[in-house]
Design a protein that fits this description.
Number of strands: 0
Largest sheet: none
InterPro entries: DUF5132 (IPR033456)
Radius of gyration: 30 Å
Shape: rod-shaped
Pfam families: DUF5132
């Protein structure tokens, strides 16, 4: 019986190893995609802040002064 279980374990080892490698590959791919998405989000936030700064400086320039 022990030889039988040992044989099954030996046969399943390559499959288990491939499943582990697939999991590692999947984790790395998801991690890379999440990192890229984070970078794109940071870029969007920076662009939005720049747009707001431009709008604020334009509205300040248009406001009448006390001398007007």
């Amino acid at each position: 019986m022990t030889d039988f279980l040992s044989g099954i374990g030996s046969a399943l080892r390559p499959l288990a190893k491939e499943l582990i490698k697939g999991g590692i590959y999947l984790f790395d791919s998801v991690s890379e995609a999440a990192s890229e998405a984070g970078e794109q989000f940071k870029d969007l936030v920076a662009e939005a802040k720049t747009d707001l700064a431009k709008q604020n400086s334009a509205s300040v320039a248009k406001e009448p002064t006390e001398d007007d």
